Amino acid sequence: MGSDKKQTRGIRGATTVENNSAEEIISATRELLNKIVTDNSIDTRDIAAVFFSATPDLNSAFPAKAAREIGWLDVPLFCQVEIDVPGSLGKCIRIMMLVNSTLKPEEIKHIYLKETIKLREQ
Questions:
Q1: Contact call for residues 52 and 78 (beta carbons, < 8 A)
Q2: Among candidates 29, 22, 17, which has minimal Cα distance to 68?
Q3: pTM greater than 0.85 (yes/no)
Q4: What is the distance, to the nearest Å, from the Cα of residue 39 to the centroid of all Cα atoms in its chain?
Q5: b vs e for 42-56, b when ≥16 Cβ sit within 10 Å of the residue's Cβ?
């Protein structure tokens, strides 16, 4: 699996919530972060940065708060609003995690939960 030399890799993930509530946004984001880390055997010390986006209909909490709550205090985090494309999936949180890893690109497991499974079909 992978090589001995670590390289920076991007890992994508997405999830949805049913309601624009801080509790749901944080909970869903925490679930997604934990699944990305577990499924890719990531040592959290190897996370270089995490970029979060949320669709414009989610504004009750910053998704990055979930990372802080699970102890990622030294990881640079950045939140932004997703482009509001007509007809696109709503109430969606997306993540781009940059990780120093020995995994090859084809070994990376990108994680799509709940309604975001539809995004992989496009």
A1: yes
A2: 29
A3: yes
A4: 13
A5: beeeebeebbbbbbe
Residue ranges per structural domain of the chain? 7-120
94 is catalytic: yes
Query: What is the per-residue pLDDT for 88?
Result: 92
Residue 93 CA, distance from chain mean position? 7
The fold of 7-120 is: 60s Ribosomal Protein L30; Chain: A; (3.30.1330)
Q: Are 108 and 65 in contact (CB under 8 A)?
A: no
Exactly one of 31, 82, 92, 121 is catalytic; name it: 82
Six token digits for residue 98: 């940059």
Low-confidence ranges of the chain (pLDDT < 70): 1-3, 121-122
Among this protein's residues, is 45 annotated catalytic?
Answer: no
Our answer to whether residue 79 is catalytic in this structure is yes
Q: Which of 23, 68, 69, 107 is catalytic?
A: 68
| 3-class DSSP state of 100 | strand
